[in-house]
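Before the break, one more example. Copy the sequence into your notebook; we will annotate it together after we see the structure.
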Amino acid sequence: MRQTLSRIMLALLLTANVSLAKANTVEGQAQLRSLTSLFMEKTSAGDIAAAYRSLRPYLGVEAAPYDRSAADAADYFARVTEKAGQPVGRSHVRTETIGSDFTREIWLQKFEAAAIVWRFTFYQPTGDGWKLVGVSYSTDMEPLYQPLQ
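Here is what the structure looks like once it is written out:
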């Protein structure tokens, strides 16, 4: 029984590694900005599922949790629009990096009475292209504030 479980786990891990290795990569900062801008354009049009699909080819993580996250985001977005109305705009807030290994694009989606922060995290372990490892959203604006210069 234990050997069977070990073989199943090994097979799943090998399958997961093969599927992750086939992910497309993003070549540079300009393409990262363009892809996340397209995502934001689709969310502004109310098509959260299409927005998530647009980034799916670049996944560097398992697809199933990403797909569940997309469905959760669509539900959340529907609740927000019920209370805050349709999006009225979007703006790129900033790009953050950790060396040349991680980069994060942060966008603000604006509504008449509220806003959503979207964060897109990309990773390149070997320097040969970026893979998407996280998409998150929040109404917590506190981390975005910066002192006036």
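The chain has a mean pLDDT of 87. The radius of gyration is 18 Å. Try to locate both features in your own notes.
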